[in-house]
Prior knowledge:
Elements: E1 2-3, E2 10-15, E3 18-23, E4 30-36, E5 41-44, H1 54-60, E6 65-68, H2 74-77, E7 85-89, H3 93-98, H4 105-113, E8 138-140, E9 145-147, E10 152-157, E11 166-170, E12 175-179, E13 188-189, H5 197-207, E14 214-217, H6 228-241, E15 251-253, E16 258-260
Parallel strand pairs: 5-6, 6-7, 7-8, 12-14, 13-16
Antiparallel strand pairs: 1-2, 2-3, 3-4, 4-5, 9-10, 10-11, 11-12, 15-16
Helix pairs in contact: 5-6
Amino acid sequence: MKLLNDPWFTVEEIDATTFAISEYGHWEKVHSFLLIGTERAALIDTGFGIANIKRITDQLTNLPIVVITTHVHADHIGGHGLYDTILVHQAEADWLENGIKGLPIEQIRYDIGRDITKPTPKEFNSATYTPYKGKPTAILSDGELIDLGDRLLTIFHTPGHSPGHVSILDNDREYLFTGDLLYLDTPIYAFYPTTDPVELLNSLERISYLQVEKIYGSHNTLGIDPGIFFEVQEAVYNLRMKDVVRHGTGLHKFKSFSIRF
């Protein structure tokens, strides 16, 4: 079900208090997620910052919003500056405040400005785009519980795609939000210098034993059947047996997903 008529964002209802806020006009097709409790709401990531995501969340809830950062890549933190409460894992707190060392701004601007299929706001200019930088309000830790009021979230530290990557389990609804750890249609990236193939596989293996109703990655297809976890477990086993879990071994394809080391 699609909600709200917006020129940039597509808003889809997962359930009455859970919404995907998607940017399908960009080639990365990134999703942010709004989870509404009785006392406050959580916004998992804030997208590119190409358009103002707060104009969407303001229409969906009037509760205080805490932003949970899956990881500090530009396509996940673009709207962070619009909110007062920002949470990030300790391993990427410095990235959030000072930027990712070794990642040229020219590369970020090139990636954000290419292959856009929807009109962008007049305020957006890829040539001058600068990723958000700011001090987090608080630090996330593995196993931490976040209570939204009648809705409890568990934080899982799932490094690999990036050092401080986290996944979020909505305990009440058994939704698992996997950020860039697991998604479909395009390869899961673990070939950058800041990635760790061994940690990525460890994280995939860890989440694959969770009991969930639905998986929500941060790109492409919205909603993944948890049956994929059996495939994930087999893939982890095979990659280890083939001794290819390291940078430079290229693209590894499986039935439903792929990984590039």
